[in-house]
Amino acid sequence: MARLFDQVREAFATLSACATPPALIGGLALAAHRVVRATRDVDLLADAADARDVDRLLLAIGYQCIHRSEDVANYVRGDEGLDVLFAHRPAALRLLKSAAERITAMGTFKVVSAEGLIGFKLQAVINDPTRRQDIEDIRALLRAQLGQLDMAEVRAYFVLFDRRELLDELIAENANDPL
């Protein structure tokens, strides 16, 4: 775990040279919202306008780009993985801009809101329905942030992806869960 924490710190320090600092998303971001689970890679949200700089900076510290598109880039360095989601749509840009500095076990970094993480994880499930861990992460975020989430924002993501019934099921589970 210490190696992963070092990887996160190095990535943020390196990418601080970008015009817009990136924000933590994915499994590591969950911890900032009181959900802990194992993960093996680093996931970041970066402004699409910084995509060339992100690539140049990560290559300069030894990463190899194994895939890059308008929406995402995947990097490896030895056994370390780093994925970058590029924000270019208004909702993703808003989430990046509103990402708050959060104190984590790894240091203080910008982290996307719990609502935003739910939206990204829902999108991942829509893109690949076999990603069951993302549903579990949504379930855990709903439980951990009970009463603190902006449910209108959360509901808007489920409406966007035509998954209202799924949200209703997850909310009902929480209501019936004795925690």
Major sheet size, sense and barrel closure: 5 strands, mixed
Number of helices: 8
Morphology: globular
Q: Please state the average pLDDT score.
A: 93
Q: Which regions are unreliable across 5 or more consecutive residues at pLDDT < 50? A: none
Assign the structural class, choosing from mainly alpha, mainly beta, alpha/beta, alpha+beta, or little secondary structure.
Answer: alpha+beta
Q: Give the tally of β-strands.
A: 7
Rg over CA atoms, rounded to whole Å, is: 16 Å
Strand content: 15-25%
Structural key phrases:
single chain, 179 residues, alpha+beta, five-stranded mixed β-sheet, two-stranded antiparallel ribbon, 8 helices, 7 strands
Report on this model:
With 179 residues, the chain is an alpha+beta fold. Helix content is 50%, strand content 22%. α5 packs antiparallel against α6 and α5 (114-127) runs parallel beside α7 (151-160).
What is the secondary structure topology, with strand pairs?
Elements: H1 2-15, E1 23-25, H2 26-31, E2 41-47, H3 51-60, E3 64-68, E4 72-77, E5 80-87, H4 90-98, E6 100-104, E7 107-111, H5 114-127, H6 132-144, H7 151-160, H8 164-176
Parallel strand pairs: 2-5
Antiparallel strand pairs: 1-2, 3-4, 4-5, 6-7
Helix pairs in contact: 5-6, 5-7
Outline:
The protein is of the alpha+beta class and 179 residues long. It has helices spanning 2-15, 26-31, 51-60, 90-98, 114-127, 132-144, 151-160, 164-176; strands at 23-25, 41-47, 64-68, 72-77, 80-87, 100-104, 107-111.
